[in-house]
């Protein structure tokens, strides 16, 4: 019996949850114009997953690559959510 699929599913759920929190904090502290940092993280994880021989770790890196790259899209939608009052606005930002 293999639990690989269930474990990878759990990793995916946790990574998506991490991505939601990360987008809120990222936009709060650095703004949506710093999206290139997420591009570097996502690309680094994607490339890293290609060179890791362990299937589990490679899969985890691939999942986080997808989360970081999708977070770029969500980062551009976040200012509207802040404007609508769904998330706090950083008073120190212009």
Can you describe this structure in just a few lines?
The protein contains 3 helices and no strands.
Number of distinct helices = 3
Radius of gyration, taken over Cα atoms and rounded to an integer in Å: 15 Å
Poorly predicted residue ranges: none
What helical percentage do the residues reach?
over 70%
State mean pLDDT (0 to 100 scale).
Answer: 92
Distance between the termini: 55 Å
SSE order = HHH
**Biggest β-sheet, characterized?**
none
Helix/strand-derived category reads mainly alpha
Please give the domain count: 1
Kindly estimate the percentage of residues that lie in beta strands according to DSSP: under 5%
Q: How many beta-strand segments?
A: 0
**Globular, elongated, flat, extended or rod-shaped: what is the shape?**
elongated
């Amino acid at each position: 019996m293999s639990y690989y699929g269930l474990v990878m599913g759990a990793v995916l759920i946790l990574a998506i949850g991490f991505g939601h929190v990360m987008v809120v904090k990222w936009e709060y502290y650095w703004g949506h114009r710093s999206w290139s940092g997420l591009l570097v993280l996502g690309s680094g994880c994607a490339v890293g997953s290609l060179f890791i021989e362990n299937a589990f770790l490679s899969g985890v890196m691939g999942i986080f690559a997808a989360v970081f790259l999708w977070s770029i899209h969500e980062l551009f939608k976040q200012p509207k959510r802040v404007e609508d009052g769904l998330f706090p606005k950083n008073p120190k930002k212009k």
